[in-house]
Write a structure and sequence with these properties.
This protein is of the alpha+beta class. Helix content is 29%, strand content 29%. Strand 2 and strand 3 form a beta hairpin. InterPro entries: Anti-sigma-factor_SerPK, HATPase_C_sf, HATPase_dom.
Length: 156
């Protein structure tokens, strides 16, 4: 949590119990101490709301919401702690999404899945929706990040 937060700038999205977030300018942080399927859906709604607040709309918002859904779902599916932090920020005409968790495993794109497989395509979606994505290992976990192109001329 950020020590600079005060009660006036803490954003508590409805339906996400135990969640604290910081929204300042074109940077947004959200701590998810207990990721569940309901948290994933709630987080997607919060991301759409924040991007709307930043006056962003259209395909970039749809792409960012889907990327967040996939990355937070991976926390639920593949980490023991099922906790993470989400960061959104604009860097010029790019929206950067980062999800940090304590998991030591590095996510892998699965290629050649059977047609009837019901999972395993999340990172392929992230790759398709992003101009770039990757994983940074940390001493205490990892950050999976994605960059989504904003419309040309977007000033964030």
């Amino acid at each position: 949590m950020d020590a600079r937060r005060s009660e006036s700038n803490v954003f508590s999205p409805g339906g996400l119990m135990g969640v604290a977030a910081l929204a300042t300018g074109h940077r947004f942080e959200l701590d998810l101490p207990s990721v569940t399927p309901a948290t994933v859906a709630g987080t997607r709604r919060v991301v759409r709301t924040m991007l709307s607040f930043w006056a962003l709309s259209g395909p970039a918002v749809d792409a960012a919401a889907q990327v967040v859904t996939e990355l937070v779902t991976n926390v639920y599916e593949h980490t023991e702690e099922r906790a993470c932090s989400l960061w959104l920020g604009t860097l010029g005409e790019v929206l950067r999404v980062e999800v940090q968790d304590a998991g030591r495993g590095v996510p892998l794109r699965r290629i050649g899945l059977p047609e009837d497989a019901t999972g395993g395509r999340g990172l392929l979606l992230v790759q398709a929706l992003s101009t770039a994505w990757g994983v940074e290992r940390l001493p205490f976990g990892k950050v999976v990040w994605s960059e989504v192109q904003l419309p040309v001329g977007t000033e964030c």
